[in-house]
Amino acid sequence: MEKSKIELQNISKSYYSEAAVTQALRKVSLTFVHGEFVAITGESGSGKSTLLNIIGGMDSFDEGEMIVNGQPTFQYTEEGWEAYRRNQIGYVFQDYSLIGHYTALDNITGALLIMGKDKEEAQKTAMEYLKKVGLEGYEKHPATELSSGQKQRLSIARALAKNTGIIIADEPTGNLDSETGRQIVELLKELSKESLVLMVTHNYSQAAPYVTRKIRLHEGTIVSDITEN
Predict the structure, then answer these.
(1) Span 132-155, average pLDDT
(2) d(CA 133, CA 135)
(3) Which of 4, 130, 186, 228 has its CA 20 to 30 A from that of 77?
(4) Are strands 90-93 and 166-170 parallel, antiparallel or unpaired?
(5) What is the spatial distance between Cα 141 and Cα 146, in angstroms, rounded to a whole number?
């Protein structure tokens, strides 16, 4: 796996409506590297989800440049962004974004088949990552039958199995009780030893013992960037 690096250079983003213009990010410059577990914090509307969505290729930026593993992205076509999302980013969402009637195994193999893996290789990889997140024995269970914590573990296994080197997690513990949430953050910490993990969270106290860095946004600007632990 390539050791990932993301450079944001003066990234700005605005949203337009008939009534107003909202500047979500204002000239944000940050660098993230392999082995970091970064918590992105701030009150609602501070720009943290916009920042994560831009890094994940799910939202565009208006000004500046994002360089991923030495590759500028400003001139990407929609096809280029689609390839970026598919091949370079593993996603973990608050709502899990699983296919409910698919088994745990099929939720992962489906993502790998889209990437062009053959079925036998996809299933072998899926089993490996189910084991890694503690879901061995659940491979034939439909996602709808899993607990909230198990669904999030499956979401993480799917992100990991893509072997992208970059994992972005948007409020991954938001729907979980405190102990299950702690276990998920602990798992993400372990995974950051082999990748770059960026997590948006409202609950920094839960993440604090595990993250290597805390970034806080306010009204679209970086107000603090602190190395932890």
Answers:
(1) 90
(2) 6
(3) 4
(4) parallel
(5) 7
pLDDT digits (tens, 9 = 90+) for 41-71: 999 999 999 999 999 999 999 999 999 999 9
Exposed / middle / buried, residue 128 (Cβ in 10 Å: 0-12, 13-18, 19+): middle
Residue of 26, 27, 23 lying closest to 14 (CA atoms):
23
DSSP 101-161: TSBHHHHHHHHHHHTT--HHHHHHHHHHHHHHTT-TT-TTSBGGGS-HHHHHHHHHHHHHH
Q: Are 114 and 161 in contact (CB under 8 A)?
A: no
- Bridge pairing between strands 5-16 and 21-33: antiparallel
| pTM listed for this prediction | 0.88
Which residues, at least 6 apart from 227, have a Cβ–Cβ distance to it below 8 Å? 212, 213
User: Pick from 216, 220, 222: which is nearest to 47 by CA?
Assistant: 220
Cα–Cα distance measured from residue 168 to residue 164, given in angstroms and rounded to the nearest whole number: 11
For residue 83, is pLDDT > 80?
A: yes
Q: What is the mean pLDDT of residues 87-116?
A: 87
7 beta partners: 31, 67
- Give tens-digit pLDDT for 202-229: 889 999 999 999 999 999 999 999 998 6
* C-alpha span between 72 and 37 (Å, rounded): 23
DSSP-derived pairing of the beta strands 63-68 and 37-41: unpaired
Are 143 and 151 in contact by the 8 Å Cβ rule? The answer is: yes
